[in-house]
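Structure in, sequence out. Go:
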């Protein structure tokens, strides 16, 4: 596809977005799906939710970080590695973990093997897992107790990650971004995923955050135009 043709399709997709309008969650998802169809990409685009918060992530007491189990998943097969031994190793395997191990798994990863998307560790093995922190950390794969991936309840966590549990944290300028599904999802399923994430982000408001907490919400497909969501709906729904 030449650049000019690609540009025309984007213009056509952008015309589907009512400039200046703040959509409700379901309405925004319908527009995102229509725009994705207008783009006619040869792959199933990922739908991303972007929330700009009134926080300064440079301050630890204003960092917003969490994990949300999306009701309809994200449309992606998640490969889960678990650092565990003994009975916990058996539990992880029974729950559907893709690879489970202890010293042997740590050695395999040290040798360059990285064929997994999420990692879980039992607390007793974190001292050893920490040895490969320089490998896992930059890739966002280091198990972390703050998001529940350091736990003895490995079976529950494996199932949540496989079902579409998504981690998020505030980036520069106080923006939180997370994937909420694929453009092929029904609009109502995308809306439910988005609302679940938005409600949790609302509940995680830091006490140190001053002024307007949720400043803007935008949703878009991988290559599509952004669609603004009415920020006023989030608080009302979350408080209901």
């Amino acid at each position: 596809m030449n650049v000019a043709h690609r540009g025309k399709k984007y213009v056509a997709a952008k015309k589907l977005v009512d400039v200046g309008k703040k959509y409700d969650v379901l309405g925004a998802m319908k527009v995102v799906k229509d725009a994705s169809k207008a783009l006619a990409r040869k792959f199933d685009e990922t739908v991303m939710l972007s929330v700009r918060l009134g926080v300064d992530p440079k301050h630890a007491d204003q960092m917003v970080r969490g994990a949300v189990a999306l009701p309809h998943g994200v449309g992606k097969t998640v490969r889960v590695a678990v650092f565990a031994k003994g009975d916990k190793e058996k539990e992880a395997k029974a729950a559907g973990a893709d690879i489970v191990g202890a010293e042997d798994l740590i050695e395999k990863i040290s040798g360059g093997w990285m064929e997994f998307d999420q990692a879980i560790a039992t607390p007793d093995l974190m001292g050893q897992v920490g040895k490969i922190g320089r490998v896992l950390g930059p890739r966002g794969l280091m198990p972390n107790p703050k998001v529940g991936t350091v736990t003895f309840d490995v079976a529950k966590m494996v199932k949540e990650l496989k079902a579409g549990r998504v981690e998020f944290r505030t980036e520069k300028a106080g923006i939180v971004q997370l994937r909420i599904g694929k453009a092929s999802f029904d609009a109502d399923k995308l809306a439910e995923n988005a609302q679940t994430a938005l409600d949790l982000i609302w509940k995680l408001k830091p006490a140190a955050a001053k002024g307007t907490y949720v400043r803007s919400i935008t949703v878009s497909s991988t290559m599509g135009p952004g669609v603004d969501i009415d920020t006023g709906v989030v608080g009302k729904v979350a408080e209901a």
